[in-house]
Amino acid sequence: MDRREFTAGIPALLALSSLLSGEAVGQGAALKQLSSGVIKPGASKAGQEGHTSQPIVAGMLAAGNIRLEMHESVQQPGAPHEAVGTHKHSEIWFVTKGVATLYINGTEHRMEAGEVGLVCAGDQHWIANAGSTELAYLVITVGPPE
């Protein structure tokens, strides 16, 4: 799948994520096969200083080679940015509240509520709260299991 095909599939991924059933799975655990249904988000968990995350869904699609995950994260003003990441999967970032800086491959992008960022597989990235109020965003990841 090339970037154009992936981008064209974003609306379908967003619709699909609202239909999938599953629970977040911890690192190293076997991933559950996802099926259609209603999502029951998991409990919020504290992360690094000033960060919380609520798992929504994580697992494998029926094809068996595509992992799908969705979570909501919150960062307080002044919290350090997430660790620099590089993954085999691609990520869709949707800011629901506040202002973010999304760093991708050496460039910082400002994002406000309602805006979507796309980080393709292999891109170096992090996100940080760029405002004076709480930042909240949804992340949908899709790609091979890691």
Q: Could you explain how this protein is built, in words?
A:
The protein is mainly beta and 146 residues long. The protein has a single domain (3-143), classed as Jelly Rolls (Sandwich). It is 10% helix and 43% strand. It has two helices and eleven strands. A six-stranded antiparallel β-sheet has the order 3-4-5-11-6-9, covered by helices on one side. A three-stranded antiparallel β-sheet has the order 8-7-10, with no helix packed on it. A two-stranded antiparallel sheet has the order 1-2. β4 and β5 (67-75) form a beta hairpin. The longest helix has 8 residues, at 10-17. The protein is globular, with a radius of gyration of 15 Å. The model is unreliable at 11-28 (pLDDT under 50).
Structure characteristics:
single chain, 146 residues, mainly beta, Jelly Rolls, six-stranded antiparallel beta sheet, 2 helices, globular
Estimate what percentage of residues fall within beta strands: 35-45%
Number of helices: 2
Number of domains: 1
Estimated helix fraction: under 10%
> What is the radius of gyration computed over CA atoms, rounded to a whole number of angstroms?
15 Å
Going across the biggest sheet, name each strand in turn. Answer: 3-4-5-11-6-9
How confident is the prediction overall: mean pLDDT? 82
Task: Report the count of strand segments.
Answer: 11
Which regions are unreliable across 5 or more consecutive residues at pLDDT < 50? 11-28
Highest-level CATH class: Mainly Beta
Q: How would you classify the helix and strand content by structural class?
A: mainly beta
CATH topology group: Jelly Rolls
CATH homologous superfamily identity: Jelly Rolls
Tell me, briefly, the overall form: globular
Please name the CATH architecture: Sandwich
**Largest sheet, described in full?**
6 strands, antiparallel
Distance between the termini: 18 Å
User: Could you spell the SSE succession in H and E letters?
Assistant: HHEEEEEEEEEEE
